[in-house]
Amino acid sequence: MNLAGIDVNLVVALAALLQERSVTEAAKRVGISQPAMSHALARLRETLGDPLLVRVGRAMTLTPRAEALAPRAQAVVEELEALLAPLPSFDPKTSRRTLKLSATDYVQLVLLPTLEEIVSREAPGITLHVLPITDQLAAERLRDGEADVAIGRFDHEAPALDVRRVALFRDTFVGVARAGHPTARGRLDLSTYAELSHVLVSPRGTPGGIVDGALAQMGLARRVALTVPHFLVVPHVVASSDHVTTMLAHVAATFTALLPLTTFELPPELDLEPIGMTMMWHERTHEDPGARWLRGALVRAARPLAQARGARTPTDKKAREPQGPARPRAGLVTK
DNA sequence: CTCTTGTGTAGTTCACACAA
DNA sequence: TTGTGTGAACTACACAAGAG
């Protein structure tokens, strides 16, 4: 049987007719006129090759075929109603959902404490599943449903039509050395900075970083004494040695509060572009209430970072969507 | 590609038949 | 007389085909 030729409304009419056992009552139930329901019954009789309802005096009675069809027709209608029902609402106070966030360890460090505070306060029942950034493109992971939201630097990823982006915050570079370091204090000139022994964070183990690239453009090089794959170990190394490092200011602020560290200004000639952190999500989850709430919570968690030195808030730009669950429609976001 | 025309379908109102 | 189902006539709408 070719289902494309079947009017779904006939199934609805069938269920109503078999339940009400009356053309008039079935018509009221479905919301059409009584003759229209009578015509629907005629079409059903023709399609199924069975009278379905036969008149017995003033009442209508079901044929054996109709008796057999009744529960199944009702089940199909209930399934259709469930299929076409609007999106389930998301109440952060009661939801037990798991929301998945893909983020670099830098983002996790600077954003998670505030985010977790918001989650604990507003959505205590949800589980936040934080996934590391992998070699796989973030857009693909979002597309595959591995993550609801991804945050990081996505400069290397070409914009995709089905993935939305919004700038969250920016961060600038500062120098970090142990408290009481004999040289690294205040603002260093370029040659003094280059002569220090540095710790380089290289997630992929490759030599050279942003700083080395900037120095090379000026015909200079620095001495890299130690290369590590994760930046979290760097503050501990720097705190207990004369090595220095160059890291993002938000991270430096976190560690100078915990370890005997001090920050210093980088030489002005070392013109390092601030790093922009971007939030991405797939079109598939754009209208999902839970994912919307998470995006709004992330924007709020990022607000103190966005308002800090060298940062820019999403509201400065044209992306206004992720403000929280109250916003019914997305604002303008870069795709 | 757009507009017009013809066709089919499903809705409505109105009228009527039938049974209690 | 009343309640119910059915048929006829008409209307609205969607869709396909053809013309320009």
Automatic annotation (TrEMBL):
Residues 6-63 form the HTH lysR-type domain. The keyword DNA-binding applies. This is LysR family transcriptional regulator. Residues 305-335 are annotated as: Disordered. Belongs to the LysR transcriptional regulatory family. It holds the Pfam family HTH_1. SUPFAM superfamilies: Periplasmic binding protein-like II (SSF53850), Winged helix' DNA-binding domain (SSF46785). The keyword Lipid biosynthesis does not apply. The lineage of its organism: Bacteria, Pseudomonadati, Myxococcota, Polyangia, Polyangiales. Gene3D superfamilies: Periplasmic binding protein-like II (3.40.190.10), Winged helix-like DNA-binding domain superfamily/Winged helix DNA-binding domain (1.10.10.10). Keywords: DNA-binding, Transcription, Transcription regulation. InterPro entries: ArsR-like_HTH (IPR011991), LysR-type_TF (IPR050389), LysR_HTH_N (IPR000847), LysR_subst-bd (IPR005119), WH-like_DNA-bd_sf (IPR036388), WH_DNA-bd_sf (IPR036390), YidZ_PBP2 (IPR037402). GO terms for molecular function: DNA binding; DNA-binding transcription factor activity.
